[in-house]
Q: What sequence folds into this?
């Protein structure tokens, strides 16, 4: 068991290292995989659950530009930059600085003032969406892949929901099944005949 | 991916096997000795092959190798056929979140590719029913052929239906030759080499989950999944019945089924019903769960639930 555990920890560290190496959004914060629900053994969970790489952005680090620009805390529509962002997430009551920290632009901020890395964005979501984050931690909401009895990868909220406009986007469906009347039986017979005659 | 090991299925030795063999020899000698003697040895072996559960370890090994040789010839692909034993203390269960499914049919096609279903004629193990929210889960008025530009359609919800892996499976009861049965881990399987093609099971299944190969299946050579299981996704022949096996070739290796992996909204859940900590048990404990056509007492291990 200790050997297995060690192997698990090494694997998790390797994956995290790889993610941190290729994505500036994920700062090394290796203790924080997924907050374990209380009734579970947190050690067992952290060796089994691995976050999938979070989003990448051409703009990061934000401070590259924002350190030069004076802060304008006025609520307004953005026109010069970030005008591609459609903000539809309780936009009546919130805007950029509700989640993005005004003094440290490379951080998110909780309502209580605590700063968060972008890889911990789910905590921000959980402030309002309590039941959802609870279900997500239990594996009911959201998506997990990998092994049903072992190591799983899990997606963060922002993988499926654009934080600025979180409603899940519609998709084009794959083709419907063929109707019985549309089955071209002759072509199947022809193929079968060919198969049976070919050596 | 975890390395796939060849673990042979536990066998039962049954005297009936020998009896049947001699019966078959007798019949064959009268009816077609000359015909059989002209066959190659693999064909002869196939003719005399026993039902899966009656094969002993050596016979099973020989059968698997023969099947691999046959597939090599037929599909020109190195298809490996395994007979992985079920895990101890595992009973598989499936959850499907009706409040999330958007009817995109990604699962249908992931299943087709993973499980080597025929492309022509088309065989789908999963069908997704579109229903009107006003009418509720009304199977009679559901639509399987919906094809809008985008899903979900306004005022509609979607209900994917596949084999429900019933504990009290009517399909198993009606099979006249015991070509289909429930494995210890709860998966209802078919021995395609033992199936007569009588389709009794199809008419017995209240979920329309079983599909028949009306013609010899067509699978593009480059799309064949070569990791196969005897009781699962190995290529089938014309005239046999097939159905969802929870991706037996994946789940017995510890992996999630293909439909769970592909679902873009995470509406599909899977796990061990005997493990209290599993996702599926958590769902059953905390969410509103129902089984389809409960009144028929089929006792499915496929649980629909509302995640919201």
A:
């Amino acid at each position: 068991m200790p050997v297995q555990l060690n192997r698990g920890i090494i694997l998790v560290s390797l994956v995290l290292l790889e993610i941190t190496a290729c994505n500036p959004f994920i700062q090394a914060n290796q203790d924080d995989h997924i907050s374990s629900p209380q009734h579970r053994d947190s050690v067992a969970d952290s060796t089994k659950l691995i976050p999938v790489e979070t989003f990448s952005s051409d703009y990061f680090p934000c401070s590259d530009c924002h350190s030069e620009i004076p802060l304008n805390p006025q609520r307004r529509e953005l026109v010069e930059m970030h005008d591609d962002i459609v903000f539809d997430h309780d936009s009546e009551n919130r805007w950029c600085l509700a989640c993005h920290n005004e003094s440290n632009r490379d951080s998110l901020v909780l309502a209580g003032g605590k700063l968060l890395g972008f890889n911990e964005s789910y905590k921000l979501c959980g402030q309002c969406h309590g039941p959802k984050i609870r279900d997500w931690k239990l594996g009911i909401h959201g998506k997990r892949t990998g092994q049903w009895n072992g190591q799983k990868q899990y997606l963060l909220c922002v993988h499926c929901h654009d934080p600025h406009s979180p409603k899940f986007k519609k998709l084009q469906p794959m083709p419907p099944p063929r109707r019985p009347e549309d089955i071209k039986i002759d072509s199947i017979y022809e193929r079968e005949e060919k198969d049976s005659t070919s050596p | 991916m975890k390395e796939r090991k060849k673990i042979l299925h536990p066998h039962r030795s049954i005297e009936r096997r020998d009896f049947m063999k001699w019966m078959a020899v007798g019949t064959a000698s009268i009816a077609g000795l000359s015909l059989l003697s002209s066959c190659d040895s693999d064909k002869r072996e196939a003719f005399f092959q026993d039902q899966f559960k009656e094969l002993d370890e050596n016979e099973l090994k020989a059968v698997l190798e023969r099947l691999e040789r046959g597939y090599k010839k037929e599909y020109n692909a190195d298809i490996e056929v395994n007979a992985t034993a079920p895990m101890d203390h595992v009973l598989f269960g499936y959850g499907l979140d009706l409040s999330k499914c958007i009817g995109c049919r990604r699962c249908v096609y992931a299943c087709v590719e993973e499980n080597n279903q025929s492309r022509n004629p088309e065989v789908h193990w999963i069908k997704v029913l579109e229903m009107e929210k006003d009418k509720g889960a009304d199977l009679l008025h559901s639509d399987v052929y919906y094809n809008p530009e985008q899903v979900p359609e306004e005022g509609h919800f979607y209900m994917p239906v596949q084999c429900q892996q019933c504990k009290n499976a009517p399909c198993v009861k009606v099979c006249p030759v015991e070509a289909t049965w429930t494995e210890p881990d709860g998966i209802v399987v078919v021995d395609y080499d033992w199936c007569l093609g009588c389709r009794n099971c199809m008419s017995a299944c209240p979920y329309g989950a079983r599909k028949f190969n009306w013609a010899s299946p067509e699978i593009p050579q480059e799309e064949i999944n070569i990791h196969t299981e005897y009781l699962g996704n190995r290529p089938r022949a014309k005239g046999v019945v097939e159905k969802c096996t929870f991706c037996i070739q994946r789940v017995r290796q510890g992996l999630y089924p293909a439909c769970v992996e592909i679902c873009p909204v995470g509406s599909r859940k899977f796990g061990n019903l005997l493990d209290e900590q599993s996702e599926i048990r958590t769902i059953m404990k905390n969410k509103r769960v129902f089984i389809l056509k409960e009144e028929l007492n089929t006792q499915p291990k496929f649980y629909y639930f509302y995640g919201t």
Summary: Chain B touches chain A through 51 residues (CB under 8 Å). The mean pLDDT of chain B is 91. The two ends of chain B are 33 Å apart (CA to CA). The CA atoms of residues 37 and 44 of chain B lie 8 Å apart.
